[in-house]
Design goal:
It contains 12 helices and 20 strands. The chain has 2 domains: 135 residues, Rossmann fold (3-Layer(aba) Sandwich), CATH 3.40.50; 235 residues, Rossmann fold, CATH 3.40.50. It is of the alpha/beta class and 380 residues long.
Length: 380
């Protein structure tokens, strides 16, 4: 079961209650989700007439910003806070969602700059209904999750059956993902929501000193934050993290030399980290800012898991406390765990003799079959 919580101001456009948004909430309620409109002010005069005959409730509460109303609603409905969606129109709504550990959705018609900068947005009533419907049907968690001594790994969906040729499939999926991230719209919004909900199930709000980053592409960095996954990662951060530590145009990793695109070279040893390590380094901007941080690294897809092992080695050398690698898709059952130690300054280029790597081993983990087809369906 889901609960949808919003405030009266979100339902008013140009000084008048929006019939389209009200009808969307009525439809969502009729479909089985709990819907509530909350405020620390009295119930609007138009509310009873707008929601007559429905189960939509008005909830008057003080200090909404502390999130207690979210926790109370979740308790009454016997659901977890990550099954509560908050449609936010102003900063107080955002604070209510974050402090209540709910999923935060921005009303795209809001004029509040803080709200317009949030990651998950709906532009109109139809998109709101579609997003709620998607969330209602998403009962899974990560397709894959595993824990190892130096880092943990997560993958949103299994893409093993998506075509027979893994190499061609990986290229195809990467192109589709890139297009989705660049074009935005409902698909990107839905992708962000699925990843956000899985992070909330993991208790990401309780993790202190978070830092978010993107594993770099094989191309030389241009000096800006232009990786195709950067915007997606910032969307995740604003949705599920209380932290504000993240700087635009300062990527965590710098690719100083183009690396071999591993998916294109079938004959190469795809578990050898040398090319990856010697072609990149940590951004010096983070040299005094990385120590003690718990870092989440996002990559589009993984097969052998080398990117997570390499990222973990750099981040450990830079002083990070923990590393979690998140891939949107995982191919096959060949993911490895890499125990790599960098013996030089990770904020400068690394030579081939400046790191040590133990033989990689199988990265065992747990699978949740409910998540298997999510991305394939989402990005056709």
């Amino acid at each position: 079961m889901l609960a949808i919580i919003t405030s009266p101001g979100v339902l008013v456009q140009n000084g008048t209650p929006s019939r389209a948004i009200i009808q969307a909430l009525l439809n969502i309620s009729a479909a089985g989700s709990a819907v509530g409109v909350t405020s620390n002010l009295s119930k609007p005069a138009w509310f009873d007439d707008a929601f007559k005959g429905s189960k939509v409730k008005f909830i008057k509460t003080d200090a909404r910003q502390n999130g207690s109303v979210i926790k109370e609603i979740a308790k009454q409905l016997n659901i977890d806070p990550y099954n509560v969606l908050v449609l936010a129109g102003k900063s107080e709504d955002m604070q209510m969602a974050k402090n209540g550990r709910a999923i935060l959705i921005a009303a795209g018609w809001s004029t509040d700059r803080t709200i317009r900068a949030l990651g998950i947005q709906v532009s109109d009533a139809a998109e709101l209904e579609a997003l709620v419907s998607l969330t209602h049907g998403w009962t899974g968690h990560w397709w894959f999750e595993g824990e190892k001594p130096k880092y943990r790994a997560r993958a949103l969906a299994d893409l093993s059956g998506y075509g027979r040729d893994v190499t061609a499939t990986q290229q195809n999926f990467a192109r589709k993902l890139t297009a989705t991230v660049k074009s935005g719209g409902p698909q990107l919004t839905a992708l962000t929501l699925l990843a956000s909900r899985s992070l909330l199930i993991d208790g990401v709000y309780e993790v202190e000193n978070l830092l978010w980053g993107v594993y770099p592409s094989s191309q030389v960095s241009t000096g800006g934050d232009d990786e195709v996954l950067s915007d997606f990662t910032h969307r995740l951060r604003t949705t599920v993290s209380l932290a504000r530590f993240a700087k635009r145009d300062e990527p965590l990793f710098i690719r100083h030399t183009a690396s071999e695109k591993r998916s294109l070279n079938r004959g190469a040893d795809r578990t050898d980290p040398t090319d990856q390590i010697t072609s990149m380094h940590l951004n010096p901007w983070y040299k005094s800012r990385l120590r003690g941080r718990n870092v989440i690294i996002v990559d589009d897809c993984t097969t052998h898991g080398l990117s997570f092992g390499v990222a973990a080695a750099f981040l450990a050398a830079g002083g990070a406390s923990s590393v979690t690698g998140i891939a949107l898709g995982k191919f096959g059952n060949t993911m490895k765990y890499f125990d790599i130690v960098i013996n030089s300054d990770p904020f400068k280029p690394i030579e081939a003799d400046q790191f040590e790597s133990a033989p990689c081993v199988f990265f065992a983990g747990e699978n949740d079959p409910r998540a298997q087809q999510s991305l394939i369906t989402l990005i056709p």
